[in-house]
Amino acid sequence: MDNFTFFSPTKFVFGKETEKEAGNLVKEFGGSRVLIHYGGGSAVRSGLIDRVKYSLDRSGIFHIELGGVKPNPRSGLVYEGIRLCRENDIDFILAVGGGSAIDSSKAIAAGALYDGDFWDFYSGKPITRALSVGTVLTIAAAGSEGSGDSVITKEEGMYKRGTGSEALRPKFSILNPELTTTLPAFQTACGITDIMAHLYERYLTNTRDVEVTDRLIEALLITMKNEGPKVIKDPSDYQARANIMWAGTMAHTNSCGVGRSQDWNSHNIEHELSALYDCAHGAGLAVTMPAVFKYELHHDKERFEQVARRVWGVDSAEEGIEAFRSFLISIGMPSNLEELGGSVEDIPELVKNLCYGDGRTGTITGFVTLDEEDCKRIYQMMV
Ligand code: NZQ
Ligand code: ZN
Predict the structure, then answer these.
(1) In which domain, by residue range, is 190 found?
(2) Is the pTM of this model over 0.70?
(3) Residues 246 and 359 grouped into a single domain
(4) Same domain assignment for residues 256 and 324
(5) pLDDT confidence tier of residue 68, bands split at 50, 70 and 90
(6) I want to staple 285 with a disulfide (CB 3.0 to 4.6 A). Which of 152, 197, 277, 296 is the partner?
(7) To test the ligand 1 pocket, which listed residue (52, 281, 333) has its Cβ within 8 A of the most ligand atoms?
(8) Gap from CA of 277 to ligand 1 centroid (Å)
């Protein structure tokens, strides 16, 4: 196991009606002037935004709001949010929604305290300070409620890039599984896929003797395998929703990824798909992962055999990948580029953006280092 420092200061408040605590929690973490940031309207329609505002009012906290975050959040709204924060002396951003609203909030939080262009942070500049962020989560998926990461798409060039910093870890996250019962089945399935992807990305490691984190990841993968189909069948199954929500957070706080190298090739390859086709991140991953895993198989077959045996109950690495692929299809995920709205003709552009876009120099490095030719072959395997 490698040396590591693990710092995960987020206060998680989990369970029914916990959004009522929003005002108290903002106050506890020193916020007095809040920007509520949310998506395309689901949180307004469900009455959640009104409940959150009521909670802030009861705690005497000033608030303004900025809705309209799109899935695969864009740079344009981040600039707007930074401007609003400065004009209104905002000291706390409350994200209400999924990974997109949370990531956009984190970008605003970092940008509001920076004189330059916030995009610098998504092109490699380290983030050392940011406004405080809290979250009210409405979809179990990205894990942004417990991570220091944020992924934004720059509208100029449509580059989808991520950044990470301890300064971006939310101060608190409110996790009420009831809020996820209004999700369309497709979005629920995209979330399940993304959570499993976060686990696989950590499982595919070149570090030896990491039994404790291997076993944690396996436990979470088995939980997702068992609980996922339950919520697809019955969206109101609170206990299954609850198990999935906490698994989603655990998958991405990095508690099960410490002390080991990680992969993230599937995520990098997928981000070009959601940048070009504006598809859901989870749907893109469902198409990407089987192809990447088959391509990376030769690198360390034993890794894939271990997860095949311990999670999927089959003997060979190939059968394990196939079992995962079938599982994803069974919950309603796409299995090829065409189903995402893409085609074979797009591959040169996908490869160019992936390997050379926004300052990259030709390779991506994870479990295996992939060059232009490797990436081209992987995209071809998705057709
Ligand atoms: O915008 P609204 O109207 O809220 O609708 C959203 C959106 O259409 C809807 N939705 C969310 N909660 C709902 C709901 N609909 C009904 N009822 C509810 N309770 O679901 C759709 C997807 O929402 P989004 O926030 O985009 O989903 P997700 O959490 O999957 O976030 C995806 C983004 O996170 C990034 C992805 O790349 C993508 O941009 N990621 C962020 C990470 C991080 N910060 O650590 C890690 C991930 O790997 C990922 O890359
Ligand atoms: Zn993801």
Answers:
(1) 185-380
(2) yes
(3) yes
(4) yes
(5) very high
(6) 197
(7) 281
(8) 16
